[in-house]
Design a protein that fits this description.
This protein is an alpha+beta fold. The protein is 19% helix and 30% strand. A four-stranded antiparallel beta sheet has the order 1-4-3-2.
């Protein structure tokens, strides 16, 4: 278990803090199961890392988006050079507690 630096855009941080976002999709692994990260003053633990080579359509809800379209637009904005066949790493996480 390691404390990692997992960065989120401010609007994504807010979704994490509100409990609306329980995973993050990245183009490379950012941590391993058991690793911890902090958003504001809250600690979260990575509970799974899933490798996905095809559709991300079923991740929009856990990512904190209301529609797949919103999620896809966000991903395309962040990863401008991605194509339809791309390897993604979905990091699921859970709230652990406050920073002491």
């Amino acid at each position: 278990m390691t404390l990692i630096n997992l960065k989120f855009a401010p609007e994504m941080e807010e979704l994490v803090l509100q409990g609306k976002k329980c995973c993050t999709t990245r183009d490379e692994p950012k941590g391993e199961v058991g690793d911890l990260f902090v958003v504001k003053n809250r600690v979260y633990r990575i509970i799974s890392v899933t490798r996905e080579n095809y559709s991300l359509s079923h991740y929009f809800g856990p990512e904190g988006f209301k529609t797949f379209r919103e999620f896809a637009d966000c991903i395309r904005n962040i990863y401008k050079n991605c194509d339809d066949i791309h390897t993604w790493y979905i990091h699921f996480f859970a709230y652990v507690g406050e920073v002491e």
